[in-house]
Amino acid sequence: MPQRDDIVVMKFGGTSVAGPQQIKRAARRIVTAREAGCRVVAVLSARGKSTDELVATAYEISDKPDAREMDMLLSTGERISCALASMAINDMGHKAVSLTGSQAGIVTDSSHTKARIVDVRADRIKETLSLEQIVLVAGFQGVSTDSRDVTTLGRGGSDTTAVALAAALGASVCEIYTDVTGVFSADPRIVPDARKLPVVSYEEMLEMSASGAKVLQLRAVEYARNHAVPIHCRSSFEDLPGTLVLPESETMERPIVTAVTHSDDESRVTVVGVRDEPGIAGLIFGALAEANVNVDVIIQNEPVADDALADLSFTVERGDLPTATEVIDSLGDISNAVRTDERIGKVSIVGAGMRSHPGVAAKVFEVLGEGKINIEMISTSPIKISCVIPADDVPRAVRSIHAAFELGENAIVPEDPTGEHRPTVSG
Amino acid sequence: MPQRDDIVVMKFGGTSVAGPQQIKRAARRIVTAREAGCRVVAVLSARGKSTDELVATAYEISDKPDAREMDMLLSTGERISCALASMAINDMGHKAVSLTGSQAGIVTDSSHTKARIVDVRADRIKETLSLEQIVLVAGFQGVSTDSRDVTTLGRGGSDTTAVALAAALGASVCEIYTDVTGVFSADPRIVPDARKLPVVSYEEMLEMSASGAKVLQLRAVEYARNHAVPIHCRSSFEDLPGTLVLPESETMERPIVTAVTHSDDESRVTVVGVRDEPGIAGLIFGALAEANVNVDVIIQNEPVADDALADLSFTVERGDLPTATEVIDSLGDISNAVRTDERIGKVSIVGAGMRSHPGVAAKVFEVLGEGKINIEMISTSPIKISCVIPADDVPRAVRSIHAAFELGENAIVPEDPTGEHRPTVSG
Q1: What is the pTM of this model?
Q2: B61 vs A23: CB contact, 8 Å cut-off?
Q3: What is A268-340's CATH number?
Q4: Is B92 an 8 Å CB contact of chain A?
Q5: How far is it, in rounded angstroms, from Cα A331 to Cα A324?
Q6: Which of A178, B79, B257, B374 is a good FRET partner for B51, with 20 to 30 A between their CA atoms?
Q7: pLDDT digits over B282-293, tens only?
Q8: What is the radius of gyration, based on Cα positions, of chain B?
Q9: Is the ipTM of this complex over 0.90?
Q10: May I ask the CATH class of domain B7-179?
């Protein structure tokens, strides 16, 4: 628990500030921390679906909205949340000041819509805290060093804002408030007996975020690990401890498998008949990185015939598929054909204990095989195994693996297909 | 008409950017001016009712929203319009860059929600124009000198932004695009045969804006007069000349009465039994000015008895009534009672020719008297006569006066009570 005079960064996601009632509830949380003696910096996301609505409006205007202007557009959502929360806090007898990303000193590069934080100049925040005031910071945004334009950090970037501020301010904890009560052993909407994890390591959380858990944004976890910022994922709707994300040495338990994660919003690109010569893969993935396309799983088949042509497959977020195919096309005559599979799923298991326990992969393949689920691609890390499978098989795969590794709160529970009495997982 | 290489400032109001179709239409207008060789700076308002919606949300959160936070909140609307219009222009093959008030160099005092422009530092705009780019500026907002906080200029402040930029840039014209085709001899919704005025002088426009014409904001007209910025009020929906606002020497015709204006959103405050001693009125109106309450008509009855107590009445915008009564109450024991009349109307006639033609006032009083409309307060200037009357009598008063002075396009026209085929007047 944070102590008196500690700086605490509290981040509230979109569902936690969706409407006036939620904003007042978040304000009450912030005031409670302040009244406990903490110096509070709160980072807010845009209200509910407001960012989605702005994006939809942009696409009504333009098929390919200018990235700089997209940032000017989208950065307004978090400012609205902050101004409203500040009004609520001021009404509760505390002085709050809302700051834009720029005013808060979040300095980024110029990569519009996917900017990276290059510096945090927190002088104005420190000044405001020293006046005994509460600081509200518009998440997800910053200002570019060179052109002083508004930039955004990409979807879910508010987590990164919060962690970056916690690091810069030496906060004792970065609390991430969402509509879920913590990090679960699987998505409770799919696995009703999924268990809330009291503690996970940065490494596990990184793998989970990378493989579909939407509670925390990957970059935020990376930033927290690099700066040793303790994260506390908790519910904005109930006052219970959630999940702590900490260095591995401090985690309490080290199960072989911690969680099953999944995603069903990926697409696969297969470049057929790539010339098998040095530099081609570098050319392709360099160009994709240049275009800010995050590539997830990659496999390349060794050429079997004399013509030295290989097939190269990789997965990307579905939203990046048009850009990815454009990029490949722009590289000219490097292959015979490009095939895409728009709708691909992935199931992953993550656990720090896997490092020292062989046989986990074999068991996963066995479970999927028993379910007649076809594994199309495999990707592993020391603490994770991911299998690309047909998107429609994802829920069944998650349930089977979760049960096989006995990750649930109890072995046999009546299924709750509505999911109504379970928290939902979202970012 | 603006010439090649001229700088033109084009301002589009809320209805002109209400939705994607309107935004594209405004973008097309802007591009047409650019393609004619002009260097274009466009100032945009927030979309349609979006500012009203933000205000309503603020009041769902707080009964008295913090003014600084209100500015942070409301300034987002114009940024959204600009970003969207910029996307549309970029799609049309021109390069456009949207700027916030702060980025555009609109420097104001710190009077939140009613800030005044103290400086325009247009370097970034000039730089962008010199790159052959179109500049879009979020209207209605600026940045405060001392605290570098976002400020807003008050409702309708985008007109002022446009005129201030036109002055700072030496623009050949400031075009104000709205959903009306120009300035009319009366509100066409009330007077079907109201006539579009080709030219009015700054002085007439000032009196008209002050007395209820919503086409142009008063402060914008004042700013234009002080800096000799020619204004062209025109329709964003049709490509016809509108109304030019120019110095008096340049105006073409000088009728005795140019227009009848009205308002029905005023309230009256009567301070009963004020001590009739020097300094009391100064105290009252000084305190009101301090609270940013704009007082319109003032009358004071001379005390008739020996107790030296007078009654002081004044009118304010209805929205300012609560603040006005609070201010009076805060002055302590200066009167016997304060009475308020929330709903008061006003009808005014404006005309530069009135200066040299006595008898206009008499004719107005006569017309109102014939209609049995009770005049409750009177206020005059060399080119204007205003009568405070019951709010419900306003439409009838406007029609009678407009007819009596023969201001219409033709003496007898069939009335169009729906007003559907007439433009509407709004700001």
Answers
A1: 0.82
A2: yes
A3: 3.30.70.260
A4: no
A5: 11
A6: A178
A7: 889 999 988 888
A8: 22
A9: no
A10: alpha beta
